[in-house]
Specification:
Strand order of the largest sheet: 1-2-3
Largest sheet: 3 strands, parallel
Radius of gyration: 20 Å
Number of strands: 3
Order of helices and strands: HHEEHEHHHH
Number of domains: 2
Number of helices: 7
Length: about 160
């Protein structure tokens, strides 16, 4: 398949394979679905067709708010883009901090710190979602607003 993909620029037309449309792809039976290309792909029109028990949003905003509610009611765990896409932003922050300090981390240190932060973030959001009996997205937003409010209270508003 790799040779076919390199020669043709895609996997379209690969021998002994079935073509699947984007619409069909979202409804295939699977444990985990990772919509990672475009926003607004899971909507109220197709959310009931999603067979996955876990959706990890790789794209920005692939699930509409109405679909998010439908998936929650179906018992599907949606890991929102603000959590699942945070790794790149976090590592960019690491680069900024290292540049300011002229103290550079090894690749292992970067991945160790990234893993810790991502795990802590997911755990905090999951705990709040469980406590409030709400979606992970709502819990992530609630936690974010709470943290901004705490920072404003602690630091005040400054330029």
């Amino acid at each position: 398949m790799q040779q076919h993909s390199q020669h043709h620029g895609s996997v379209v037309g690969f021998a002994n394979a079935d073509a699947v449309s984007n619409t069909e792809l979202l409804s295939l039976p699977c444990d985990v679905l990772i919509p990672a290309a475009l926003g607004n792909q899971i909507t109220s029109h197709n959310a009931h067709q999603i067979a996955a028990q876990i959706i990890i949003e790789g794209a920005n905003g692939p699930t509409t708010p109405d679909a998010d509610a439908m998936l929650f009611d179906q018992g599907c765990l949606v890991v929102p883009d603000v959590l699942s896409n945070a790794g790149g932003v976090i590592v960019s922050y690491f680069e900024w901090v290292q540049g300011l300090q002229s103290f550079f981390w090894s690749e292992t240190e970067v991945y160790t710190n990234l893993k810790r932060i991502m795990n802590d973030a997911f755990t905090s959001v999951m705990q709040l979602a469980t406590q409030r009996q709400t979606h992970l997205r709502t819990a992530a937003y609630l936690l974010a607003v709470e943290r901004v409010a705490q920072a404003l209270e602690t630091r005040g508003i400054y330029p």
